[in-house]
Batch of 4 targets.
Target 1
Amino acid sequence: MSGGGEWWQCPCPLESVPRVRVCDPKLLDFIREQRPIVITDSKLVESARHWDLEYMEKHMGDCKFTVYESKERVFMFSDEEKNLGNYKFTPTATKRSMTFQEFASEFREAMKSKDKFLYLQQGLNDTVGPTIVKDFVGFNWTWLTDVVKALNWGHLTTNMLFVSMPHLVTPCHYDEQENFFAQVRGTKRVILFHPDNFRCLYPYRYGHPCDRQSQVDFDNPDYERFPKFKDARGLEAILRPGDVLYIPRCWWHLVRSLDELSVSVNFWYMSPPAIAEDIRFPLTASQKVAMMRNIEQMLLTALGSAGEVSDFLRMLVSGRYDTDANHTFRQLEM
Ligand SMILES: O=C(O)CCC(=O)C(=O)O
Ligand SMILES: [Fe+2]
């Protein structure tokens, strides 16, 4: 992927994510309909507005943070523990553990030497210093709790803290939780795709360490391998301090940090519990994604290897479901 300060050209056509004020009566409808929006003026993370490198270095305490280090600007997420299919895969980023003070000093060093890139990504917990805890308690939980209650979402699972050098990229992927993504400092550009772009974005298989990530390199798309990527249609949002982006579950997103230092905190929530009687047919695109994952998981567990799953799916589909259904009917009617 390209780096530097130039404006990155996304290969897909993009429209803008609507910006909606916190007091707008349509806000909850957007979220209920699972449409991404940028919520403004919520003051959700206002109490963290002074979180810069110096402040965090002083107040984060001695706890350890997960920091990814890479020679490239692209930080593809991977998890070897999820490698149930025993795929051969070498991550480009190294996962390290360090205090915030160590991170801050390596950050400054790397900004000068430009020989490596660092991205801190850590779930916030109560091991951070008391001043940060106070800022965290000062988040606008009153607003958030009311919204989450009105939406009937499940519980808050994680507040991920992202501290990034300029022009780093989290490549296109989807998560399985609802996300309020709050920009604290600096600017981020987020590209989003509706879950019905699944066939255009070619996720790695379930059981691969890069599960839920697109295989398409957005800087150099291989249209021969991934021909439907041409049909992908996205949305884009520029997030500045105070903006909160709602990323609905199973929506694809690619995130680029733009300036000196970017600090973001997300709020990952479990979706409303799926009660069998409440499931409406036909399924929504995100429910289909969830169903595909369940099927892939079941097949990998039952058949034991990625190769067996491949053979099984081919046997199921070849000459049967990969042909035009009407064509088959016409032939039968003759
Ligand atoms: O900010 C980033 O780099 C990634 C954020 C993200 O993927 C998320 O919050 O789900
Ligand atoms: Fe994500």
Target 2
Amino acid sequence: MCERAGLLAELKHGAGCRIDEAAEKLHRLSQDIWSCPELAYDERKAHDRLVAFFSQEEEGWKVDSHFKLDTAFRATWGPGGGDEGDVVSVAFLCEYDALPGIGHACGHNLIAEVGAAAALGLKAAVEKSSKLPVRVQVTVLGTPAEEDGGGKIDMMKEDAFKGLDVVFMAHPSQEDAPYLPCVAEHDVTVKYHGKASHASAYPWEGINALDAAVLCYNNLSVLRQQIKPDWRIHGIIKHGGVKPNIIPAYTELEYYLRTPSRGELPVIKSKAEMCFRSAAMATGCEVEVEFAKNMFVNILRNATLEELYEKNGKDLGMEFTTDEEVLTNGSGSTDFGNVSFAVPGIHPYFYIGSDALNHTEEYTVAAGDEKAQFYTLRTAKALAMTALDVLLRPDLLQRVKDEFTEAKLKEDRLLKDGQTDRTSKNK
Ligand SMILES: NCCCC[C@H](NC(=O)CCCN)C(=O)O
């Protein structure tokens, strides 16, 4: 074995040992987040718990609480790993928001644990070696509001990702996969304003905002038949009136519009908008159409990082899914997509010991189950090992960066040319 390969194996082993050593307190961390689910932008206890973890339970971290957002944080360590060489900045992202009514049904408590664990592992490995070709800075970014709003996008607008060379996070799922297609998404709130009236005595005096909402719902359901099979339109009626004998004067709907790539979003948005407005026209209501402040985009893939992660995962015993349907069908969306256009990174998925599906009560149970711990820490080890691969081989890091630049240029060109085809398959 050449000297570098020997050092790499030793450092990867060291990262794994550190993660195992911290297993109990990492479990406590995710349990505390799991048992107190908090919604987007309101993850106060999770924020405080993570800040305490890095400032009190762990040594050597510089912690910025309320970093850029009230419930975001940043913990940094380094530069370490030697006195010479460029500083390479590696970040691990933690999410920790839950879903209304069903708690941690997307397992973001485990995302927080993976991010914290991987950072501990990488720091320990780097601390032990003065032979690295680069100096290393390890950053943990606590990124709120993935389930609603897109905290990472807010943080990007505030330059929170500036200066990072590579970013990692991992998301709980039903299987291990270095990449699964995430779709672009733009959320919209539609408000209808009508006129109240006694629904039995003088209904002709009213303007029915619920009729507008129902027509809007039906228009969109009809539109769904004419859109591409991998586009998604789904929504709820948030306000549907207050009493059967009052003609509803106000209704509100919330819809998520999704397409495989960011370039297709304007098409679905303009089609949906015709549905919103025609319902208003048919009923005589006024309509307000409010698109969300942040639009989630598809993930810009990085084949080099994906391959390294897969190799490390396999070395740790992961069996990656080969199910073509899972590998090609779009799933949900993530604000990591936006990050992936700013910094090279990966967002692999990991099995948590259960076949339960995300966004169900069963998944909430699975995300809090002790059984998930083995898989969560194994994922953290694979991420730390992947970081070590690129830190020990500057040529690999350069390849990661070149690939990122090329993929981004290609996507930007497609977007500029108005091509609305799937553009994220740059692997
Ligand atoms: N509408 C706000 C964003 C919703 C994001 C949410 N994300 C996930 O479920 C994570 C899946 C990662 N593929 C979604 O509904 O897609």
Target 3
Amino acid sequence: MTSAAAHPIVGRTVLLMGPMASGKSSVGFALARILGADFADTDVRIVREHGPIPEIFAAHGEEAFRDLEAQAVADVLAEEHPNGIVVALGGGAVLRRETRERISGHHVVYLEVAWEDVAPRLVGSEDRPLLHGQAEASWRELMAQRRPVYETVATLKVHAAGGTADEVARAVADQLIPLQKELTRERRH
Ligand SMILES: Nc1ncnc2c1ncn2[C@@H]1O[C@H](COP(=O)(O)OP(=O)(O)OP(=O)(O)O)[C@@H](O)[C@H]1O
Ligand SMILES: O=C(O)C1=C[C@@H](O)[C@@H](O)[C@H](O)C1
Ligand SMILES: [Mg+2]
């Protein structure tokens, strides 16, 4: 494990973004451990406070879910995390402009995957209402709409299917740390 004092990400906020099943939650948890940072998952916070995501979609619709999600992101960013925090976002969180504005200035890591990578991970998935039981067609359609947003918002893009979640987290850390060093050096000059 990298010691918290030894790496320049300490105290920073890192947000993980990407499509359903790209590994935001699993990689985020592992990355927080590597960085010695706190971890939050906005989907988990919403479920804890408001109940299962499919029930929120069914009872109140997607926009109501997006309101809760935008608030969850705002709340986590307003908290004090002296050791830094890794935040797993929901797959559609960056569709909201207010969220894009709030996260700008932080590290936003795009976990890039293809359908073929995530298909085995989505087998039997029942907690993703936007897939409507037609996982491949729905996932591909959402990606066609969202890829340009992900590409625009990302400060770092990482291929997220070349190994286990722990290995992907290691790859993210290995790219984030020099990036932050570079940013810190630029700010000093
Ligand atoms: N690199 C990986 N290799 C293999 N399996 C993985 C990898 N990353 C995540 N998984 C598995 O894929 C599934 C989905 O991962 P995870 O829940 O982390 O994705 P997510 O991006 O948070 O999805 P969602 O948008 O629905 O929140 C989980 O069962 C997880 O264990
Ligand atoms: O991609 C999406 O729009 C979603 C992804 C999940 O993380 C959840 O936030 C929810 O199921 C919606
Ligand atoms: Mg997740």
Target 4
Amino acid sequence: MRSIFSPEGAVALRRTVETQALLVFDFDGTLAPIVDDPADAFTPTATAGLLLHLLGHFKIAVVSGRSTQDLAPRLGFSPTFVVGNHGAEGLGDAPSAGHLEAAAWLMARLAAHQPELDAAGVTLEDKRQSWTLHYRQAADHSRARQAIQRAIEPLDERLHAFGGKCCVNLVLASASTKGDAVEALVAQAGASGVLFMGDDVTDESVYRMSRPSWLTIHVGRTEHVTGASFYVDTQRDVASVLRRLVDLTHTLGH
Ligand SMILES: O=P(O)(O)OC[C@H]1O[C@H](O[C@H]2O[C@H](CO)[C@@H](O)[C@H](O)[C@H]2O)[C@H](O)[C@@H](O)[C@@H]1O
């Protein structure tokens, strides 16, 4: 991975503008800084202003692990496309087969383990098509992870679990991923290229599907192995990338 602020990164950003690529952003940790309480996450005003400006030149998508209903008031701008639930919601497809049964299985397991989960400081975010068990505010993260593990394992075969930032996510095993969603959006937008920025395990599905014409930028360098081509060091650098795109649209007259 190279810095997007390297000479190679400058070439890749220029190509993004020249080809009027589809701009795709993850939300938490990418457009919005990570905060203790998920309810407090919003796109900073300056970032939303840059995105609003870029909407005059590009189609923009936000592809998030949150539900689309939760996302809308947090964005600060109205993207061309919004996809939620890690790729499973917003592209017109009905919830995956077995959804109700899997949800019932999960709720029963969580109810059975409620006292232990509560004592460990684990909270549930129910997004209807996926579920997140949060432990950022738990006193002992290791204890919280163990409580989650005891509650969900052995996991129902209709579900898939994966880690995130101080959380465990559960999605339908048959559900579309963020990678599937970006592919579908490229077709829908008729775009020849993509710029994608993400920061989390769930964003790796996009990096894995990446084509030579896609520019993938990971926020952060050390948290986990990543297949992105470029990185920025912190979430604050996302606004700098957006500013460079705005400058390039002026320089290149797009
Ligand atoms: O795909 P994303 O848009 O990055 O969504 C991933 C999850 O983000 C949220 O949780 C994370 O951000 C919270 C706010 O900063 C933080 O408190 C939490 O520890 C993080 O895991 C969101 O609540 C989840 O639903 C998303 O799946």
